[in-house]
Design goal:
The complex is a heterodimer of chains A (409) and B (220).
Chain A (H helix, E strand, L loop, with lengths): L2 H10 L8 H39 L2 E9 L2 H9 L4 E11 L1 E4 L2 E3 L2 E5 L4 H4 L6 E4 L8 E5 H7 L6 E5 L2 H7 L7 E9 L4 H4 L2 E5 H8 L5 E8 L5 H11 L4 E5 H4 L1 H39 L1 H9 L4 H32 L1 H11 L3 H7 L11 H18 L1 H9 L2 H6 L2
Parallel strand pairs in A: 5-10, 7-9
Antiparallel strand pairs in A: 1-11, 1-12, 2-5, 2-11, 3-4, 3-8, 6-9, 7-10, 8-9
Helix pairs in contact in A: 1-13, 2-11, 2-13, 2-16, 11-13, 11-16, 11-17, 13-16, 13-17
Chain B lengths: L5 E12 L2 E13 L4 E6 L5 H8 L7 E6 L7 H7 E4 L11 H12 L4 H13 L15 H13 L5 E5 L7 H18 L2 E5 L3 H5 L3 E6 L2 E4 L1
Parallel strand pairs in B: 3-7, 3-8, 5-6, 6-7
Antiparallel strand pairs in B: 1-2, 1-4, 8-9
Helix pairs in contact in B: 3-4, 3-5, 4-5, 5-6
The chains are: A alpha+beta (409), B alpha/beta (220).
Chain lengths: 409, 220
């Protein structure tokens, strides 16, 4: 090992001292920054990851849409189904409705599903907490749990469904009665927005309510595992007529994803300042060290040490603090992530807000998804910033002339 | 003199303080041959340490030149191999134990191997500190620290040892022991020694004694 690295390590971890105060305090500052970055970026990544799964699970990876409703959806299904990489496709119709149970109304989106193919694209069975998808027919619906709770209905109850068509009919002086349907299931997706605003029915029910006839609003497509979404979209678009286009889920939710990425970028940028502040503390400590060790620096020159190596000795101290702080920060961050739900529940329990948490949280648990690229970025940036923190002290040390440094009192 | 270990010719050095100019060295000539010991005495402020810094290549003269073994290369890399230094204040690295302090000279030179480690242990044995080789400087007395510094100065088998008041911080008995040790080690290693000291008795132990007066070096 070069002498300047050896000396840097020894100055940070002197022989016979189990807890070198300066090293631990400096590394702790860096570690806290790294831990916060890991925790926050993982939780934000978790939200994005969960949202991706929810979108894909409820919409498929690819959506096929036209400017208006699609007429001959059977041929669209056949065309899409012939594309390599497509595992399944299912048509849907979706629009706003008003539902009423007794005197309690709600205003969800009703999504009409083709029962013969929907299970191959969106695994709704997985989200059911009561009832069964098999019981669904054209006179029944499945409610998401928060809607069911808000109107006080449960499996076996009947509700009235009012479609926007009523308004059109009223203006034409005709009467369009609400549809009486049974509740055959309650589902819980785990996303507050979907759980509070979605009702599932058959495609025919939705077509009737919206006056679509045999038209549909779109086709959801499930891809085979490992198939690249953008490539699949390109292949599907090649076989579809020009007025019907396929979009990946990322295209369909591009604005939402852009906002999500912007938020992540901003949070990362802001939290990085903790590491930068910690690096300033490292700089300050190393500058004090340069002043305190002036005569030792002179000695190194007298022994034949070159200024660049003296500088490297102090830069290396910044590097070692960065590595130590990063390792400790990663350990701290991942430990905190492992116990994140316990901590959130404990805080909710202590503040007696468990119910509020359950009602308003986007997800039933605090999600976490740590991407290797984010961790790599945190590690590289932290180590680079910490090493740069040693530059100013290193420059000061390298500028000291041995003869003047040795004369220093 | 054939192949002098050190040769200084016409060394001049001045320091400026405001408008006044202090001529510290006014044309110093010095040749030191292999294995020779030379002592330099002088009053405080006579320029002994300035001269030593010039001879050790730590400072540049205003005029004149210094050469080591016929070469005027007195840069850091050559200094590590050619010259060992001993200081009044020992200048041991406080975070390194005695053994690592001795070894530091070889680390800086490069080529740290088993032989170098064995030499460091051997030198510590020669200065009587093998048992305390893993003690930190703070756990050693002044005399012991200076002995570690002697071992460090000899680590790279230099041809020249430059000692600046090596007994200045020691009591008389310990100072005598250190000087005897220094002379003995230099003699057995055939290293030349330039010893700057206030102490007349210590200076007299060198083969040649010089006196620096008013910036001029002459026989004591």
């Amino acid at each position: 090992m070069p002498w300047y690295l050896h000396l840097a390590a020894r100055q940070l971890f002197p022989t016979g001292r189990r807890f070198p105060f300066f090293t631990i305090i400096s590394a702790l500052g860096v570690a806290l920054g790294v831990a916060l970055l890991v925790i926050v970026m993982s939780v934000m990544g978790g939200f994005a990851y969960e949202i991706r799964h929810l979108i894909v699970d409820t919409e498929g990876e690819v959506q096929v849409k036209a400017r208006g409703p699609i007429g001959d959806y059977a041929s669209v299904l056949a065309l899409v189904g012939s594309v390599p990489g497509v595992a399944a496709a299912t048509p849907y119709a979706s629009d706003a409705v008003m539902i009423k149970f007794g005197d309690r109304p709600a205003f969800p989106m009703l999504r009409g599903l083709d029962l013969s193919s929907v299970e191959k694209v969106t695994p709704l069975d997985r989200f059911l907490i009561a009832g069964s998808l098999r019981d669904m027919d054209d006179d029944s619906v499945i409610l998401s749990d928060q809607i069911a709770a808000s109107i006080g209905a449960t499996v076996g109850d009947s509700i009235e469904v009012y479609s926007p068509l009523i308004i059109e009919k009223l203006s034409a002086d005709s009467v369009f009665l609400p549809r009486q349907v049974r509740i055959v299931g309650i589902l819980h997706i785990g996303h507050q927005q979907l759980d509070s605003s979605t009702v599932y029915g058959t495609l025919r029910l939705a077509q009737d309510l919206y006056g679509l006839g045999s038209l549909v609003h779109g086709v959801n497509v499930r891809l085979s595992p490992g198939v690249n979404e953008d490539d699949a979209v390109a292949r599907i678009n090649r076989v579809l007529p020009a007025d019907i286009r396929a979009f990946s889920w990322e295209d369909s939710f591009s604005e939402f994803l852009w906002v999500l990425n912007l938020e992540r970028g901003m949070i990362f940028f802001l939290l990085l300042f903790i590491v930068i502040v910690a690096a300033f503390s490292v700089t300050s400590s190393l500058l004090i060290s340069v002043v305190r060790k002036t005569r030792e620096i002179g000695l190194l020159g007298a022994l034949g040490g070159r200024p660049i190596h003296v500088a490297a000795c102090f830069c290396a101290q910044g590097l070692f603090i960065g590595i130590l702080g990063t390792v400790a920060g990663l350990a701290l961050g991942f430990t905190a992530l492992a116990f994140r739900n316990n901590v959130v529940l404990w805080v909710a329990r202590v503040t007696q807000r468990e119910e509020v948490l359950r009602r308003f949280y986007q997800f039933s648990e605090l999600p976490s998804h740590t991407s290797a690229s984010t961790v790599a970025l945190i590690v590289v940036l932290t180590i680079v910033i910490s090493t740069l923190a040693g530059l100013l002290p290193a420059w000061r040390a390298a500028r000291l002339k041995p003869v003047e440094a040795l004369r220093n009192e | 003199m054939n192949d002098p270990v050190l040769s200084a010719v016409g060394l001049r050095k001045h320091f400026r303080s405001g408008d006044s100019v202090l001529e510290v060295l006014r044309g110093v000539d010095l040749d030191v041959s292999a294995g020779e010991s030379v002592s330099i005495r002088g009053e405080s402020g006579s320029g002994k340490s300035t001269l030593l810094n010039l001879l050790a290549g730590l400072d540049s003269p205003d005029a004149g030149s210094v050469s080591w073994g016929g070469s005027t290369d007195t840069g850091a890399s050559r200094r590590a191999a050619y010259l060992g230094m001993v200081f009044q204040s020992y200048y041991l690295v406080p975070e390194l134990d005695a053994y690592q302090n001795v070894l530091l000279a070889r680390r800086i030179l490069g080529g740290l191997d088993k032989a170098a480690k064995a030499r460091a242990r051997s030198l510590l044995g020669e200065v009587g500190l093998l048992e305390r080789s893993h003690h930190l400087p703070s756990q050693l007395s002044g005399g012991e620290r200076q002995r570690v510094a002697l071992a460090r100065a000899l680590m790279n088998e230099p041809r020249l040892i430059v000692a600046d008041e090596p007994t200045g911080n020691l009591d008389e008995r310990t100072g005598n022991e250190v000087i005897e040790l220094l002379l003995g080690l230099c003699s057995s290693a055939n290293a030349a020694l330039i010893l700057v000291t206030h102490n007349q008795a210590h200076a007299a132990k060198a083969q040649r004694s010089l006196l620096l007066t008013l910036g001029v070096l002459g026989p004591a």
